[in-house]
Design a protein that fits this description.
Blueprint lengths: L1 E2 L4 E6 L2 E6 L9 H16 L5 E6 L22 H10 L4 E5 L2 E3 L1 H8 L2 E5 L3 E3 L13 H9 L1 H10 L3 E2 H7 L4 E3 L3 H15 L18 H9 L7 H14 L2 H16 L2 H15 L18 E4 L3 H12 L4 E4 L3 H20 L5 H9 L1 E4 L10 E4 L5 H14 L5 E4 L6 H5 L8 E6 L8 E5 L6 H13 L3 E5 L7 H18 L3 H11 L5 H8 L2 H10 L4 H8 L25 H13 L9 H21 L6 H12 L8 H8 L1 H15 L8 H8 L7
Parallel strand pairs: 3-4, 4-5, 5-7, 6-8, 7-10, 11-12, 11-14, 12-13, 14-15, 15-16, 17-18
Antiparallel strand pairs: 1-2, 2-3, 8-9, 16-17
Helix pairs in contact: 1-2, 2-3, 4-5, 4-9, 5-8, 5-9, 9-10, 11-25, 12-13, 18-24, 19-24, 22-23, 24-27, 26-27, 27-28
Bound molecules: acetoacetyl-coenzyme A and 1,4-dihydronicotinamide adenine dinucleotide (NAI).
The site of 1,4-dihydronicotinamide adenine dinucleotide (NAI) has 22 residues, from helix 12 and helix 15.
Length: 689
Amino acid sequence: MGNLNASVDLRRDGEIAIVTVDNPPVNALKHEVRAGLAEALRQSRDDVAIKGMVIACAGRTFFAGADITEFGKPPQPPGLSEVIAAIEAMPKPVVAALHGTALGGGFELALACHFRVAVAGARVGLPEFKLGLLPGAGGTQRLPRLVGPEKALRMIITGDPIEAREALADGVIDTIVDGDLTEGAIAFARRVVAEGRPLRRVRDRDDKLVAEGFADAAEALTRRLRGREAPAACVEAVRNAIVLPFDEGVKREGELFRKLVAGDQSKAQRHVFFAEREAARVPGIPDGTKPRPMATAAVIGAGTMGGGIAMCFANAGIPVTVVETGRDLLQRGLDRVGANYRATVARGGLGADEMERRMALINGATELDAVRSADVVIEAVFEEMDLKKRVFADLNRVAKAGSVLATNTSTLDVDEIARATARPQDVLGTHFFSPANVMRLLEVVRGAATAPDALATAVAVGRRLGKVPVTVGVCYGFVGNRMLARRSVQAERLLLEGALPQEVDAAVTDFGFPMGPFAMADMAGLDVGWRIRKGRGERDEIEDALCEAGHFGQKTGKGYFRYEAGSRTPLPDPEVERTILDASSRAGIARRAIPEGEIVERMIYPMINEGARILEEGIATRPSDVDVIWVYGYGWPVWRGGPMYYADQLGLAHIRDRLTLYAERSGDDSLRPATRISRLAAEGRGFAS
Ligand code: CAA
Ligand code: NAI
């Protein structure tokens, strides 16, 4: 009894033993915790005066899972599976007391307890898939026994937790506790003991293990996950719950887990997990800097981005005022937001009452004065410097002192915009990605004069909106679009040299992106760039010819691909092929077959090269920030860890040599390896080490 070690405490309340774990911040099941739990179980089992046991956690959450930092290191006994087996084998009832997020190994531990009680706000889930894994501590065998194989597989493959209420309805937890959780759990354990209730072991249940429909569900859930190793393992493990005896299912689950955890994909996904959290640490923000208070927001412009950004605030429960230039434009913008929400309601993604609540948080206005009380103002008007400067000069007049003034510009100089105000310390960029209410990435652009607490506020606001904020410096296109531009140049050149849009897109989707560059261009619309080029007197051989022939992309049913009425599936278009062949011959290029390997290299390596320059210039803080930007903003396959991580895996000497080759072959010096690549390669190092 007492403190068993620095993380685990065991006490008695009458005939009930209470083990409390305190391993901040999320009670990861590190070695010391497992050892303490094993000891607590042993003592409680051997003490005849103890009739039942409660497992609870201090701090903000029940166990959030295994300690991810221990993965890939030599295992230190007892393993989590041993602790879990000891819980299940306890001859006295063990009750798990859940609060916060019981995730991964933490939820699996709870599933091995004989009873589970939770507070109403608790959530339970198995997010291992997000780390390229499957639940490896019995979860694939126990959860299907409680919720059925189909739902279990859905929970495992989406990795999304369920709320306590849903868990109660499914029989995953036994009761929801009002008031103090530990007291409630102790009272529950006492009742179980007093009533002499039999121990309920999930492993002994099989009433929900129906095979029917499982294969179809598995197919549907994994269809869009090509290239990943974990889905097949998850499906196999859950199917084993149906067809194999429990112990064999657990054994096989362990084998599958060990294979995945040692594999490249999970390593890459763990890199992204920590990279995302590292990105929140912004150099130059002194310790103890507090974000400014943020209770209300305003958005200027109710166009594509403004509407989406307003939805982000409403979704987070923050009142937001949207300002437009006139009644009609405002109404049109708000109607688009309404239509967006209704589509989500129709798909079952949102309740109608919740939609009303969110819409009610969005107020429209046609006078800039309406932003007067906003703590954060985000400007999303047309991409024109003069206009933006006017808006910021006006904001300088009307916005209250200390409010953070942000621009959503994708290309313009944030410092120049800041100079339009007398408070450049409050100005920065918040670069959302389209559609703003969906995409997780937020590039927070730090200006030369931006104050640390203004920056901290933008990062904190981003997190409140459920975004992944990454701080970047001022330059044309910032990090993501600046790298993307390198890919676009190559995509166009590949067409001229011999490839077709469907070949380029196939190479990119086979690599793991959800979409190729040309299908993406069709979705965004080709006419936007065409008009800009016309204005600047520039020309793009293929794309301009397509636009002249009315190929504006999906909106006209034809772009780089053709689309059948009502469909978004890109189909190869012979007319486009002719346009491309003409362009090649006009340019005097003899077309050749381009192997898929070359296409992939030319799509990816020039981006890595630009990423290296971005690091040299200090526009991005660290290579892993660039990885986060690409994973969350552009659909870079998370199981490849991001472009800079990927480059390190291939070796920078290889990247250097291939870039040199492509530079020499094309005569394009921008393809020459960046100084940082050449230097690190010569030293035998990577970006990260
Ligand atoms: N292991 C080690 N460290 C962890 C961790 C874990 N499982 N989960 C979170 N942390 C760390 C984070 O790295 C972060 O550290 P820093 O403060 O140093 O950056 C800190 O805990 C706080 O995390 P967040 O910033 O993410 O806090 P949050 O409140 O936003 O979110 C959370 C909390 C929902 C628990 C989130 O951290 C999370 O999703 N964690 C991962 C959960 C998970 O994947 N569990 C499964 C692990 S695998 C497993 O369990 C395998 C198995 O079957 C045996
Ligand atoms: P949009 O053209 O859809 O919307 C701009 C809106 O601003 C229009 O509704 C217009 O009426 C309004 N507006 C113009 N002047 C105004 C003023 N003085 N006061 C109030 N409202 C005014 O443009 P979009 O696409 O939403 O872009 C907005 C900004 O976001 C631009 O800076 C753009 O570069 C940037 N951006 C756009 C992305 C995209 O994919 N569309 C992605 C990321 C950033």
